[in-house]
Give the backbone structure.
Amino acid sequence: MKRKLLLLFVVVLLMVCRASAQIGGLTSFNYANIPGSARVAALGGNYFAMKDGDVHLAQFNPSLLDSTMHQKVGLSFVDYFDGIAMGYATYAHRLKPRITGGATMQFCNYGKQTELDALGYEIGQFTASDYTLNLSAAYQIDSLWSGGLTLKTMYSALANYSSVALAIDGGFTYYKPSKNFSASMVFSNLGYQIKSFTDNNREKIPFQLQVGITKRPAHAPFRLSLVYSNMQRWDLVWENPNQVIITDPITGEVIEKEKWEFGDKFMRHVTVGSEFILSKNMHLRIGYNYRKRQELKLEDKPGTAGFSYGFGVRVSKFHISYGRSIYHLAGPSNHISVTTAISAW
């Protein structure tokens, strides 16, 4: 049964990937790809292949939902850039011995913006915001395999314009506790914009296919994470129109920088992270996102763009996580997540 389900899953995704080659800047609802979870942000922005009862991870991979998350509540807040605030609330509930459901309400508030007329004169202010409602369910196929789906309703409001889209996320997870190993394949935002911002201008939503693995070496106090994202498109290189072009003063020919072409393209798909388990109640986290670093660093002063870090600590009935993701010299984003179980009260 599980082989048939996996085969169907892969075939559908391959069909979708042939028709989907869109990436950032070419789609709407891209806020859905910004990690709200502090744990995910600290581990590089991509982390969804760990089955340890973390209700926040089910937002990115519904197949992680299981009975260990029963009646768990998660809240998360992101202090983004220039007054932008993001966050979500999530809840999981065991419906049947092998079936667990979940619901998540996500928001992104861009604050007040200055409105200008066609000549550039200020005429007032407007607001912009995004909202997503997720309804998820996962099925425990056997002791090792689980699968899940999420139905998403996405709403975006920009001044007097608005848009609505419907999408699904899905995934399969293989988890073997005796080997401290888990692996997942997930797709996200497979859907359709049912109401566009303007007439006759329907936009795509940011479909993505990813695989990830997490492994804790035997007797080691840490686990490693590796994610390969955007499988639906190989070339993610962004050509910077503002890049300084150097020419030979004699021939006038453009001097090309030495490129690590294949490796550069491959690494733009890869996110790595490590979680150091200091105790049952204290974790330290660090991550690296190569693509983020290449796209957002300053050539003469790259700093720590693309790196991230954070921690998780258990205090009484709460588990609190903090993540800091460094984009560039302009500043980082700060993420705070809190988890508790209703049954604990």
